[in-house]
Design goal:
This protein is of the alpha+beta class. It folds into three domains: about 70 residues, Uridine Diphospho-n-acetylenolpyruvylglucosamine Reductase, domain 2; about 120 residues, Uridine Diphospho-n-acetylenolpyruvylglucosamine Reductase, domain 3 (2-Layer Sandwich), CATH 3.30.465.10; about 110 residues, Alpha-Beta Complex (Uridine Diphospho-n-acetylenolpyruvylglucosamine Reductase, domain 1). The chain is about 25% helix and about 25% strand. The structure holds uridine-diphosphate-2(N-acetylglucosaminyl) butyric acid. Uridine-diphosphate-2(N-acetylglucosaminyl) butyric acid binds next to strand 13 and helix 8.
C-alpha cells in the first residue's frame, strides 16, 4: 500500500476543479483497507472516500486522507425464479455495469444508463433516473468500518434510502442535525454492491421523456436493450458529458412542497412543472424554477448554468482555465436566492461540498 502525496484531484472530479489531496491511498481490495488501518497514523487520520468524483464540489485542497476506491469485479452471484442477483466492486464504472448486465441477459438497470460515477457511489446518493431509483434494484452492500476495520453488510432498510439520500451521506456527530441521528459518511467504505434484478423483467416507461421517445418510434413493445438506447439518446441530448463539459449532474434536489403551497404558486405561475406524490405532497421541478428565474445559460466567472438543462451547473473554463469550487458555490447561492425570492422555496444542493 502506497501513500501518495500532493496528488492532483482535477482528473478525479467530474467538474474538473483544481484541488489536491495532501495524502491519497488507492484501495483496490479489502486487504488494502486492513493494511492501511494497521498503520497507527493512517488509522487515526480523518478520511474522505472518493468514488467517481461525479457528485462533489471541491472548494479547496483536501486535508483528510483521501481513499480512492478502485475495487473491481462484476459477476452474477445467484439466479432464482424471482431475480438475478448481480454483484460489482465499488470501483467499477456504473454505466459499464449497466451495459454488462444487459449484454449478459440480466435486464433491469436500463433506465439508469449513462449515470456518471462508480458503483460504490450509487447507493450513497441512491441514484435515480427515468422512474427507477437504485433502491428499487438493491439487494445489499458490503462495507468496512474505517475505525475498526470490521466488514459488515447492510440491507436496503439499513441503508435508509431516501430521494438522493442514504445513511452513507450523513455524519454521526453529537451536533448533527441529522434527524436519523446516525450516519456513515467517511466512517464506512463501500467495497461491493449487490443488485436484485426482478424476473420477469417489466419495462418502466412512465417518464414523460421516455413516453415521448416511444411515440416517436414505431416500437411500442420495447425490450430492455431498446430502452437503454433511448435513455442514452435522451441523456445525451439534455445533459452535458462530463468528459466534454465538467459538471456534477443535477446540482439541486427537486423540492417537495405542500398542496397548499403548490396551489399558491400555481395561482401566480400556472405553468409550473409539478408532480403529485402518494403522500399528498407535491414535487416541483427545480430545473423549471431556475429556468423561470432566467438563469439558463448565465455564468458567474467560469461557473455556468447549462443551456439545455438549468438544473445542471457546468465548468465553462475547461481543463486549462477551470472553474473553482468557490465560483460554483457563488453561482449556486445566487440561484438559491433568486428562487427563494420569487417562489419562497430554498433549493437544497445535491452534490457533497468538500
Ligand atoms: N425543466 C425546465 N427547464 C429546465 C430544466 C427542466 O422547464 O431548464 C422542466 C422540464 O421541461 C421537465 C421538468 O422540468 O418538465 C423536469 O426536467 P427533467 O425531466 O430533465 O428532470 P429533472 O427533474 O430536472 C431529474 C433528476 C435527474 C434525472 C432526471 C430524469 C433530480 C435532482 N434530477 O431531473 O438526475 O436524470 O430527473 O429522471 O432528481 C442527477 O441526479 O444528477 C440527475 C441528472
Amino acid at each position: 500500500m502506497l501513500v501518495e502525496k500532493n496528488v492532483s484531484l482535477q482528473p478525479f472530479n467530474s467538474f474538473g476543479i483544481v484541488a489536491k489531496a495532501f495524502s491519497l491511498v488507492r484501495i483496490d481490495s479489502q486487504a488494502d483497507i486492513t493494511a492501511m488501518l494497521q498503520d497507527p497514523v493512517l488509522r487515526a487520520a480523518p478520511k474522505f472516500v472518493l468514488g467517481g468524483g461525479s457528485n462533489i464540489v471541491l472548494t479547496g485542497d483536501v486535508k483528510p486522507l483521501v481513499l480512492k476506491v478502485e475495487i473491481m469485479g462484476k459477476r452474477l452471484v445467484q439466479e432464482t425464479a424471482k431475480a438475478w442477483i448481480v454483484e460489482a466492486g465499488a470501483g467499477e464504472n456504473w454505466h459499464d455495469l449497466v451495459s454488462w448486465t444487459l449484454q449478459n441477459g440480466y435486464p433491469g438497470l436500463e433506465n439508469l444508463a449513462l449515470i456518471p460515477g462508480t458503483v460504490g457511489a450509487a447507493p450513497v446518493q441512491n441514484i435515480g433516473a427515468y422512474g427507477v431509483e437504485l433502491q428499487d434494484r438493491f439487494e445489499s452492500v458490503d462495507a468496512v468500518d474505517l475505525t475498526t476495520g470490521q466488514p459488515f453488510t447492510l440491507n436496503a432498510a439499513q441503508c435508509a434510502f431516501g430521494y438522493r439520500d442514504s445513511v452513507f451521506k450523513h455524519r454521526s456527530t453529537a451536533s448533527s442535525s441529522d434527524a436519523k441521528g446516525f450516519g456513515l459518511a467517511d466512517k464506512a467504505l463501500i467495497i461491493r454492491v449487490r443488485l436484485s434484478l426482478p424476473k420477469p423483467w417489466k419495462p418502466v416507461l412512465g417518464y414523460a421523456d421516455l413516453e415521448k421517445r416511444m411515440l416517436q418510434s414505431s416500437n411500442d413493445k420495447p425490450d430492455a436493450r431498446q430502452i437503454y438506447e433511448w435513455i442514452c439518446d435522451i441523456r445525451r441530448a439534455k445533459l452535458p458529458d462530463p468528459k466534454v463539459i465538467g459538471n456534477a449532474g443535477s446540482f439541486f434536489k427537486n423540492p417537495t412542497v405542500s398542496l397548499e403551497q403548490c396551489a399558491d404558486i400555481i395561482q401566480r405561475d400556472p405553468k409550473i412543472v409539478h408532480y403529485h406524490l402518494a403522500d399528498g405532497s407535491v414535487k416541483l421541478a427545480a430545473g423549471w424554477l431556475i429556468d423561470a428565474c432566467g438563469w439558463k445559460g448565465k455564468s458567474v466567472g467560469h461557473a455556468g448554468v447549462y443551456d439545455k438543462q438549468a438544473l445542471v451547473l457546468v465548468n465553462r473554463g475547461g481543463t486549462s482555465n477551470p472553474v473553482t469550487g468557490g465560483e460554483v458555490m457563488t453561482l449556486a447561492k445566487a440561484i438559491q436566492t433568486s428562487v427563494y425570492e420569487r417562489f419562497g422555496i430554498l433549493l437544497e444542493p445535491e452534490p457533497v461540498v468538500v
